[in-house]
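quick q for whoever's on today - can somebody do inverse folding on this one?? i tried earlier but teh output was garbage lol. tokens:
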């Protein structure tokens, strides 16, 4: 760890953790990140398509 910028590695690590968690959440819940124009009849109430 270089002493020139101590916040650099912390910010990089937090960005990596946040992106990893968001990627797992989007893959696991299969979220719709865009507003759907045609509303499906099955998934009208909940926005999540569960894997199990």
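ok took a stab at it. sequence:
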């Amino acid at each position: 760890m270089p002493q020139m910028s101590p916040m650099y590695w912390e910010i990089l690590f937090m960005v990596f953790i946040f992106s990893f968690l968001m990627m797992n959440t989007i893959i696991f819940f299969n979220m719709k990140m865009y507003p759907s124009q045609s509303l499906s009849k099955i998934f009208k109430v909940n926005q999540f398509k569960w894997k199990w």
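fwiw The longest helix spans residues 6-29. also The mean pLDDT is 70. so keep that in mind when u check it
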